[in-house]
Design a protein that fits this description.
Number of helices: 5
Subcellular location: Endoplasmic reticulum membrane
Transmembrane segments: 65-95, 116-137
Shape: elongated
GO molecular function: enzyme activator activity; glutathione peroxidase activity; glutathione transferase activity
Helix content: over 70%
Strand content: under 5%
Membrane topology: Multi-pass membrane protein
Pfam family, one: MAPEG
Structural class: mainly alpha
């Protein structure tokens, strides 16, 4: 068995980040380009038939969520754990996939994918908060919250 470096544990979040880049920059961009061609909407126009507008809006909405989702993935991976963070981000990507293709069909079909992706993003955000608070309190306060919770489930006055 070869020695592992500290960076090895981040291969999974890196892989799902690449998957997210592929989804946004290849799959969804290709759909917008094909929609432009199909409905003869020239760049830089953003108006056209409802089918084009839904495709364009689905892509724009995904662009709006992408920075937040990637930042949450990496903060949660660094300060909480890379595996559950990556699983939550993968769920987010699945939700965005359902959102995008559903929205292209009809506006109402975007809702299930949107709700699923938001739930995954909230989970990622919770991991960010817990991870950062835990490391902050451990480093600056000398209290390991996670160890206290696991060991006896409570704090004594001497801990504070």
């Amino acid at each position: 068995m070869s020695a592992q470096s500290a960076i090895d544990q981040f291969a999974l979040p890196a892989a799902v980040t690449i998957l997210g880049i592929y989804q946004l920059s290849v799959r969804f961009v290709t759909a917008v380009v094909k929609s432009r061609q199909k409905f003869k909407v020239q760049v830089p126009d953003t108006n056209g038939p409802p089918e084009f507008i839904r495709t364009y809006r689905a892509h724009q909405n995904t662009l709006e969520f992408y920075p937040v989702s990637v930042v949450c993935l990496w903060i949660a991976s660094l300060f909480f754990h890379p595996v559950p963070a990556s699983v939550a981000y993968l769920g987010f990507l699945i939700g965005r996939e359902r959102y995008f293709w559903g929205y292209i069909e009809t506006a109402d079909k975007r809702i299930p994918g949107f709700k699923f992706s938001i739930k995954c993003l909230i989970g990622l955000f919770a991991m960010c908060i817990f991870g950062v608070v835990h490391k902050f309190v451990r480093y600056y306060g000398g209290i390991d919250i996670w160890l206290k919770i696991i060991s006896n489930g409570s704090f004594s006055e001497s801990d504070l």
